[in-house]
Every structure is written in C-alpha cells, then in structure tokens.
Here is the input.
Amino acid sequence: MSFPLLTVTAAVPAVGAVVTAAVPAAQRTTAKYTALLFSLATLVFAAVALVRFDPDGDRYQLTESHAWIKDFGLRYDLGVDGIAVVMVALTALLIPFVMLAGWHDADPLEDANPNRRWRPTQGFFALILLVEAMVVLSFEATDVFLFYIFFEAMLIPMYFLIGGFGDRAHAGGEEEAARQRSYAAVKFLLYNLAGGLIMLAAVIGLYVVTAHQLGTGTFSLQEILSARASGKLDIETSTERWLFLGFFFAFAVKAPLWPLHTWLPNAMGESTAPVAVLITAVVDKVGTFAMLRFCLQLFPEASKWAAPVILVLALISIIYGALLAVGQRDIKRLIAYASVSHFGFIILGIFAMTSQGQSGATLYMVNHGISTAALMLVAGFLITRRGSRLIADFGGVQKVAPILAGTFLIGGLATLSLPGLAPFVSEFLVLVGTFSRYPVLGIIATLGIVLAALYVLVLYQRTMTGPVKAGIEGMTDLKARELLVVTPLIALLLFLGVYPKPVTDIVNPSVHHTLSDVHKTDPKPALEAKK
Amino acid sequence: MSASSVHSLWTTAAPVADKFPTPHIEYAQLSPVLIVLGAAALGVLVEAFLPRRSRYTAQVALAALGLAAAFAAIVALADKGYGTTKAHIAAMGAVAVDGPALFLQGTILLVGFVAIFTFAERRLDPRAHGNQVDSFAAQGSAVPGSDQEKAAVRAGFTSTEVFPLLMFAVGGMLIFPAANDLLTLFVALEVFSLPLYILCALARRNRLMSQEAAVKYFLLGAFSSAFLLFGIALLYGYAGTVSYSGISSVIDGTAPMNPALADTTGNDALLLIGLAMVAMGLLFKVGAVPFHMWTPDVYQGAPTPVTGFMASATKVAAFGALLRLLYVVLPGMRWDWRPVMWGVAILTMLAGAVIAVTQTDVKRLLAYSSIAHAGFILAGVIATTPDGISSVLFYLAAYSFVTLGAFAVVTLVRDAGGEATHLSRWAGLGRRSPLVAAVFAVFLLAFAGIPLTSGFAGKFAVFTAAAQGGAMPLVIVGVISSAIAAFFYIRVIVLMFFSEPKPDGPTVAVPSLMTSTAIAVGVAVTLVLGLAPQYFLDLADKAGIFVR
Here is the structure.
C-alpha cells in the first residue's frame, strides 16, 4: 500500500488541533507555536502532493479508497484532480499566515476569567487547525457523502471561531460587540446548516436513485460517472434537476451567491480579521469548488438547464456586491461585499462553461484567496491599532505608517485586479470566457471592475491620504511578525500576476475533463464563425 | 340412589375438555423478562425487611445485577440464533422472541442500567441534616410542606423504592415490544406505566410540580389506556382473536371463520376504528402529535433522572410495539394506515420543532425536541421496508443514549432551589465549566443531527429508508424541521458559550462517579455510533425481521 498522502495532509492538522487543545492553560505561547508547527507540516505535505501530482496523468490521483459505513454506501474515498490539489495547497498555504496574523487575537484580557480550565488561546488555534483539516478533506473527498459530512461538520468549529473570538474593536462597546458577534455566528450557522440540510435531502435522493438503478446505493463519484457513461445509470431529467437544485442551494449559500449572501458581511464584520480570511478565502472556496466538482459532474444536463438563471444571479452578485461595497462605512464589511462581488465572478466563470471561464474561475479562487488575505489581514492590523473599523476614524495613515499603507494599497490594487497582479489574469480569463458565449453578460460584468476601482481607491483615499486624523498620530508601522505575514502574500500576488503558468498547467487538464462531462465545447471564435 | 345419581339431578357434568392445553412456557427464552421482574420483586422484599441504612446499597446492587444478568441472557439468546433463525413465538403465542424484540430489549436494558447510575447519584443535592440524599423525595407519602415531610427529611429518609419501581417499569418495557397479542400488549403497557406515574411524583425539590406532572401523566395515560382497550375490544370483535397473527390472517382472508362471531368478523369498520384506537394508545406513549400534550409538563415536573429514563426507554418500548403492530398485524392494509401516519409524522416533526423554538426551560425544550425526534422516527416506521425496521432500531438506540446523557447533564447545573432549568440561568455556562458545557454541546449537536455524531447516522438511516419507501415528501419535511430544530439547539450553545455569565448564576455540581459514568457512556455512544456505526447497523439489519 502506498503512502496515504492525502489522509496525512488532513490528519496532521486534525492531530495538531487535539495536541494544541491539550496544552496547559498557562502555556499560551507553546500552544501557538505548536499550532503553527502543525500548520507548517501540513503545508509541507500539501506541497508534496502538489509536486507528486501529474497534470497529464489520471484524472484523479493519489487516490485512497476504504469502506466506512457500508450500510449508508459511504466510502472513505479520497483523490485529487488538478483543481482540488491546488485548492488544498492554497488552504495549507494560507493557514500559517492566518495564525501569524491572529497571534494575539485570542490572548485573554487582563480581567480574564479566573477559571483555570478556560483556555481561549488554545481553543482559537485548535479550532483553526480543525477547520483546516475539514476543509482539506472536503477538497479531497471523491465520495459525495464523505464530502457532505465534512462540508457540514466544518460549520461547528467555524461557528465557535466567529462567535467566540470576535473583533474587539466595536463602536457600541463590549456588550454590543458580544451581541453582534453571537448574532453573526448564529446567522452564519443557520444559513449554512439550512443549505446543508437541503443538500442532505438531495444526497438521500441520489442514494435512492443509485440504489434503484444500480442495485446498491453509492456515493462514489467515479462509480456514478462510469455507470452514467456506460448507460447503466440514467437519471430522469426532472429528478436530476431536483437533485441539482438541492446540491446547488447548499453551495450557493456557502459561496455565497446573491440573494443568499447576507450572512457573509455579518460574519466577516464581527469576526477577527484572520477568521474573516478563513471564512472568505478558505471555507467559502469549498462552495465554488463543489459546484465544479459535484454540480457539473453529477448533474451535467441540469447544470446546463440552470446555467442561464445562475449566470444572471452571479451577475447580480457582481454588481450588487460592488455597489454595496462602495457604500460601506465599515472597512471589514466593505471587504466582505467586495468578496460577494468576486464570488459572482467565480460562479460566472464556472457556469459560462467555457475552458477559459472555468480555468479562470479556478485561478480566481486561488488569487482571490491570496489577495483577500493580504488586504484583510493588513486591514486587521490597521483596525487593531486604531481600535475602530469605521473608515471615518482613519485618515493620513500613510504619513505615520508608510509600510502599512503601502501593503494595504497593494492588497487593494490586487482586489481591483490591476494588471501585473495575480487577480487580473483570472478576472480577464473569466470575462473572456463569459464573453465568448454570452457577450452581453460579459459586458455587464465588466462594470464590476469599474466599481471595484471605485471602492478600493476611495477606501485608500479616505483612510490613508489626507491630514493625519486624531487617534492616528502615534500609529506604529508594521512589526516584524506582521511583515512576515504580508510580504510572502504580496510576493505571491506579483509572481502569479506575471507568471500564472504553474497553476494553469495543473488546473487546465482537469477543467477540460469537467467540460467534457457537461458535453460542452468552447464556442468558435467570433471571427472564425463568420467565415 | 347413589350419590352420583343424586348429584346429577341438579347438575350436569360438563363435557370433558379433551384438548385443554397445559400452559407451555419457554422459561429460558423469557429469562430476561423473568430476571428483571424477579429482581424487582426481590427489591420489594429488600424494602420491607432490610434496615433503612443498608437499603440503598442493596437496592442499587440488586438492580444493577438484575439488569446486567438480563442483558447477558439477551446476548445468550441472540447468540443462539433466537434473533434470526430460531425466532419464534413463545409463551402460548403471547410473546415473540425475534430480532427486533431482542434488539429493543437489549437497548432498554442498557438504558435502564445507565439510568440506575443517575437514579443512585447522591452527591449533587446538598446534604440534608448530614445525610446524603438523591433526587427523590424523602418520603413519597408525606404531604409537601407538612411536618411529616420535615421529620422525614430530618431523619435522612430516602426513597429507595425507586429502584424496584424502575425494575418493574423495565420489566414491562421488555414485554411491550415483544408482545404478540393485544392483551399482553395492554398488560405490559400498564406494568411499565404505573411505576412511571409513581416515579414522576417523587421529586425531592418542587414536589408540587412533580405531583402535578404525575397526575397529568396518570390521567392522560389512563385515557390512552382506555382507548387502547376499547380498540382491542373492537379488534377482537373483528377478528375473534387477540393474537397478532390471528388478526392479520383474518385481514388477509386466510383464517377460518369462527361461527360464533360471524356477524362481526370481517367488518371493516370495526377493524379501522379498533386499529385507530390501538394506534392512538401507542402514539400517546411515543409522544406523537396530537397526543403529545403531556410530554412537556411531565418531562419538566418529573425528577430529572426519571425524565431521562422515561424519555429514552419509553420511546424505545413504544416504538417497538408500534413497529410490531404495523408490520405484523397490518402489512396487508398498508394503504389504509399509511396516509394517516404520514399526517401524524409530518405534524409531529413540524410541531415539535416549531414549538420548541419558544421554550425557555431546558427540560421543556428537550421535551419538545423529543417530540420532533418521534416524528423523525415515525418517518422510518412508515417506510414499510426491512430497511425501515432496522433504521428505526438504530435510531432508537442512538437517540436514547443521547437523551440519557443530556438529562444527566441537566441534573448537574444547580442553584439554591435545586436544578436551574430556566434557560436564562445557563448563560455563560461555557465560561464557568467548559467541560460540562462542551459535553452538553456534543449532545445538542447530536440532537441537531450534525455529521460525525450518532444523531446524524440515525437521521440519515431513517430518512434514507423513508425515501426508499417512497416517502420523499416526508424526508423534505424532515430536513426542514431539522433546520428549524437546529435553531434552538444552537441557541442553547450560544447561550452557554457566548453570553456573559450572570453573577448569581448557577453552579455546576461535581457529580460522583455515578453520573459521570452515565454522561461518559452517553458521549461515548454518541461518538462511536457517529464515527463507526457499521457494526451496530449490521446488528440492526440482522435484527430487522419480525416473526409472525
């Protein structure tokens, strides 16, 4: 038996979570380093998986397959295609930065609880590792049910991260902050749980269909795909549509897609910046990833059937998210609405069903993860220094903290997809891919870029330029730990902006596989078509 | 004239009953029930003859031994194949020994065994006049607030009668799902109900509420028993027999006609009304809407250890009986009862979940949640497939241990007035006692059906069975009410972890090994059935065939 690389990649953070949680209450620093160490080890394994993955090889590689709960048809099947292996790498890459950025976020306050068993710091880092393990497993699962389990289960640690470790900078004081925080956490959980339970009905439906037609119920992606290819499995059109809707609903809540997005600004606004990054850059990616892996592959016909509506919703997300971002007064909520807009782009790219669109969307997931992490984490440093999230409380920061302002600008420029930075490539690909099939949608989506320039530059102008406001004078510039977080992210943005080939090379073959599942070919270029 | 001829002047000799059957009882196969009832009877003797100070130890040991021995007997029976190949009907057609019966009896025995630990806990309540006391009234017969009660408390009396009562209840519950004729069913129902009525009235704190709960339970229970009995009479009128297989063969039309009952036999009105009434009696015990009204009041008023036992074991027994009735007696008329049961299941799921949202008391909240869960189980019952049976068996096993554990945690959170069950008192519990709050959170997540807990495995099993049985709408209602239910489970978690503790909030009592064991068993079962349920699913699968 070969080395179970994928299992290990997920098991390392899971074990790390347990070890971290077990560190005695007084030794907070030990707990932090333990967690960081485990996250770095995860990164190593994820990197090995990335290297061992052969883009031109089998569709699913590094596979592992074991029976888990036979009666439910549940198998522990892992495997990665190009898209999944990149997403795993992205997750493993971002977690150490999230931890470093949140190094002091969970330190107990001075008047901390006297109970010796109360260990917020240990809990914070253990929960992050737990989320990482579950996210990695949901990227790796090739069994629909296995995926569902981790997709649902990750809500619980995430919920505690949002509700338990909120942003201390709140206009309404500590009590109001606690109220808002618990509201945000509950909203997050209820939205996602409801989505997940609808999906559960669809998962059961899938089991019934396969049990009916194949004799035994199965959730294995490969088995279902090959049965479908050989004609043994023929899902009725209306059934397929219902099942698709059940799955898509859950992913659209998670992603999030307008009009199911309203939990995201609350959750990102009330949680600490690193947790906000965890939500938008890591956890939400499972939603868009699952659309690619499960919606399109399991229900190709229904995906084509629903695509027009989904594209319009994605378009609304792009414009609506960007418009609301322009109007925000709170830095974190602004970034949250910007993310809604960006998720619109990703979903647009996926359901345009062109190869540029889908590889653009995959690349977008990676780039959005990195750029939002950079912007949000720097914003977090800024907010911690001032003790406020309101844009109006800032001004002239670039005079007192130039490095902070500079990194904030680069993060912002990446968010508005400035050419030369990574998100430009992906946004361009998505737009080109959309345009070649749906020109009108492509044109309207371009508006999103214009609005992005508006909200990012206005944000920068109001917070960083102008006279130095009261409360800003003594602001310190980025410290070594913070630079350690920001510099690699920015370097990566620059690198992938100039040379995205390493990622696209891995992703593209998988995108072609997915497209061939939905029997879609790229439309001919417009000029050629006229001949 | 000889004596005999004189005698014959005013009497006639009855014809000699040529084939009067001598009762033939398979003692070995009934041994679990006999052991438990025997231990219960012994418990009564202990109560009568042992000095007061040594009763507690003797009763706890006797009850635990009895249940353990009965469980060993179940395992031995199952091992000999009585669950599968040798399944048959024992005791002159009165009791079935088959897979579902053994599985459910095993579950009830384990639940009872764990419940003993919570019953026997004596470290939670502060010492009364230097004596360790448990959750039960010092003297059941003493009027609350009277001098007699004060004297009993001062003397350090405890109600050790609860252990024999528990054993009688368990004995009745063992027969209930195995009952193979309607009279045995009724007798079993009363055997386990009467001790429960008494147990409900025996709380040490809030005695008036506890007595009120008992009266409510008793009155409504008596009503439902009356319905059940009336239904039995009508069914007898229909079929001329009370045995399950007899009734089902009359329904099939394969039974020979009894000339004495020719007028009524085969009258469908009798059948349908009788059935509805019998089902009503069972649905009452299950706590299904619209027969659920007693649940919140009784759950709240009864001593919490009793509530935990009742909520789990009664449900197991009653669902077992319902399953047997629907699958053995009525398979031929699926289409008559299915629509009604659909309605009941949908109402139960939705009403339980929706009403629970507004609850402010932990015990009432758990009561309504148990109603919602009864609805989920009913969805599996309705499936009418072998998968339906085994999924219900599995769900019952999973659910009962979560329930026991959850109520055991409720006994720990206390203030000066005893248990602090109002939800607002639980605010900030997670900061004060992270461990207790975390354990309770695990139970709540299992109730909510979050993956990797037993609640999820159970829910998935029944919903899949229902979907395969063609009840997809039920599954959809099920997931919607799960989402509603998730809201109030999560609300409790929010309250425990994200609210500031109140300065005068309740303390978490440090339990003895007893309650700790009960809670630990609950957590262990929740996790094992959530992570690696295959062995138990196999067991339920194998046990999923009724004998007829």
